[in-house]
Amino acid sequence: MEDKVYINKVNIDLDELTYKKIDNQSGEFKVNINQHLELVNISFDTFTIKVTRTIDLTPKGLFDLNISLNVIFTIDKEKTAKNYMVSIEELSKHIDNHLNEFYNFSSADQHLSCLISQITSWFGKNPLILPGKLE
């Protein structure tokens, strides 16, 4: 039988937001986007993936932006227990091995894209609009 973790619900909470305005505001810029996923909390009831997206520009200018969200998954214990529930360590290993799949199941990318466009559009600026899913 295949090991599988079933999800009942996904909640997304803003964890951290840092925006630093930089005075150099003219010229052409390359947008650099880095994203990091980390399993930060786990139990047999829920687990949390923290996604941190950092945006900066080359050459350095306009702004630096760092946003972290907590994506909280509620586990369907009844369905999951039938397939997979030996120990918290094995469950953690399974989730870690499938971190991207769980993350992609959520709508966190769309929330990040919306937040980034809203933040970067302040004061009449053109918003930075990113695709819903990064590849």
Mind sketching the topology for me?
Blueprint: E1 7-21, E2 30-42, E3 46-58, E4 63-75, H1 77-83, H2 88-97, H3 99-105, H4 108-120
Antiparallel strand pairs: 1-4, 2-3, 3-4
Report on this model:
By secondary structure, the chain is α+β, with helices and mostly antiparallel strands. It contains four helices and four strands, in the order ββββαααα. The protein has a four-stranded antiparallel beta sheet with strand order 1-4-3-2.
Task: Quickly list its features.
4-stranded antiparallel β-sheet; Bacterial Protein-export protein SecB; 135 residues; alpha+beta
Q: What is the level 1 CATH name?
A: Alpha Beta
How many discrete structural domains?
Answer: 1
| Structure summary, number of beta strands | 4
Kindly name the structural category. alpha+beta
- The chain-level mean pLDDT equals 88
- Strand % is 35-45%
Short description:
With 135 residues, this protein is of the alpha+beta class.
